[in-house]
Amino acid sequence: xxxxxxxxxxxxxxxxxxxxxxxxxxxxxxxxxxxxxxxxxxxxxxxxxxxxxxxxxxxxxxxxxxxxxxxxxxxxxxxxxxxxxxxxxxxxxxxxxxxxxxxxxxxxxxxxxxxxxxxxxxxxxxxxxxxxxxxxxxxxxxxxxxxxxxxxxxxxxxxxxxxxxxxxxxxxxxxxxxxxxxxxxxxxxxxxxxxxxxxxxxxxxxxxxxxx
Length: 212
Description:
Elements: E1 2-6, E2 16-20, H1 30-39, H2 41-44, E3 48-52, H3 58-65, E4 70-75, H4 78-90, E5 97-101, H5 104-117, E6 134-139, H6 146-156, E7 164-175, E8 183-184, E9 187-195, E10 198-205, H7 207-211
Parallel strand pairs: 3-4, 3-6, 4-5, 6-7
Antiparallel strand pairs: 1-2, 7-10, 8-9, 9-10
């Protein structure tokens, strides 16, 4: 069963997207996406955006619509990947994105290992192997997979921190009643927004960690 969501603003404003129904690949609601991108308004244009647990791609596609330079979609479910590719085709997008058919943990560990292997000056030339840095990183695991939050935020605050640009923001969508930690390694929560049954936790690398 599919549901319909829409792009809120930008070059693809009001265009309809398909999304899989159900908690396993639950699409971020139009209202919550609007709230998210209102907060990210000054960050999105020209940004490298990482959409983890991408599902239908609605969040990453919203970012592209609002001028993100590139979006990396990470999703492993075959049904969701089919819908994501269909949405990209529906919008006529041929560039500015990459799809990684992978579990998020495996993707982050591989990207972290690759970034350490590549000399800094060669990273741009070897973009296929080095996936970063990103100014905005968004994660929306299945609500019932609570362990994914700690695992993913732990990687981003630890061994996979090389995927974060200076002053990057990491946003986790979660159930309002699910309390995430205030800190995961170098990541420190800087903002919590609650809307209905959902919440958005915003994280950034703490100043003390960045100086170490």
